[in-house]
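## Example record

The block below lists the input lines for one assembly entry, exactly as stored, with component labels intact.
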Amino acid sequence: MNEIRLDKSAIRFGKGLVLLNGAVPAILLAWDAYNHRLGANPTNFAIRTTGFLALIFLLLSLVVTPAAKVSGQNWLGHFRRSLGLYAFFHTCAHFTLFFWFDRGANVSSTLSEMWLRKYLLVGATGLILMAPLAVTSTNAAIRRLGPKR
Amino acid sequence: MMAKGTQGTGGKIPSNEVTPETVYLNRRLFMRAGLLAGTVVATSVAYRKLNRAGNEVVDTKKLAGLVTGGPTTGPAGVSTAGFHTDEAQTPLASVTNYNNFYEFTTNKEGVAALAKDFVARPWTVEVGGLVGKPRTFDVDDILKLSAPEERVYRMRCVEGWSMVIPWAGFSLSVLLNAVEPMSDAKYVAFETLVDAKRFPGQKRDVLDWPYVEGLRMDEAMHPLTLLASGLYGRELPGQNGAPLRLVTPWKYGFKGIKSIIRITLVDKEPPTTWNKSAPNEYGFFANVNPAVDHPRWSQATEERIGVGGRRPTLMFNGYAEQVGQLYSGMDLRKYI
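Predicted structure tokens for the full assembly:
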């Protein structure tokens, strides 16, 4: 298949499409929470959902570059940043929900629980690794840090 | 982008057939709006399908002759201490839509939907082993042994959450006394039905089926130990262990074996499912103990379902006064 070339307006539209669809799960989750429709254990439900969403968006953002290379559809690369930022957003929400609602915003209980549940350390490491990527993803940062364009 | 092809052959197309720019732009806008709306609807539907909170409504039969007299109920001469906590009860919708019942599925919020059409009749329970009068009961004959009493117990799951549930049933001791235990009976072993047609979760080997549990004889004879046939004044729904289950409120919830078909009195400690599955994490006793952490998480606090926020977990789930003496002299760090 030949590479599809998108004009500027189509790229802008595509980015908007990804942005809007990416926001849907978080909006529905917030809407359900507001209406008390998260089931018997809302805290756990919201933590689990944001965790899954973080994983899904992380995977999607990681798939973009290989998929573009393999298929030759380089326009796919335009959507990578929003997918990565959604992964970061959900990771932050995931951690905040755990800290605030599960641990009652208690730092020592959060830390001791993280020590007991080793998989929490894996998640926390992921959050720490993603933070600099998110911070340096603005256009200005890319201009300053990235290759010459 | 779509216009390029037609523009390339522009010379052959009469000018009155060329789409005017405004119409072309409108069509592009229209298609984009459609694409936007279509994908957003698809994403919403996918999210709703894949991430549902349980919301099945329970409509099992109301129990006839339920004794709700408060702390005065219970067999004559038996202490009824601990039979009724006055803490706020967990809503029926939560009790029946948040279940650990791996015979259906490992997804707590998915059990109710799979258990909706569970048929709990006819049902027999074989009570035997070291007893004077072994007998295979029809479950309805067991229920005739004593009137169902309402018992409002705390329930603490080993995963770190808890509920307050108005059960209906009577002390297990009533049934055990009816079959006359022999003096060398030291333990009671329980077994859940195996039937992959009714328990679809049993098609997968997530646990070693059948689910088996056990109690020491003194635990089994304790008045708090409940043979439950209902909750909230209704017959037990499938997801809560119809038609007959065990409730031991001072132990973690997994000791409360559901849908029982066999009760056997034995002289040695019987195997128990979670201990077989992860011996370093689950012992035979499984008494609620905030001082002994699960190897993978703390047991010091619990999330009370329907209330929100964590509260401290109590020793023996708040039933220390009633059952503490059963374990005097035992190292509860060793006998988990």
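Chain B touches chain A through 33 residues (CB under 8 Å). The domain at 83-327 of chain B is CATH 3.90.420.10 (Sulfite Oxidase; Chain A, domain 2).
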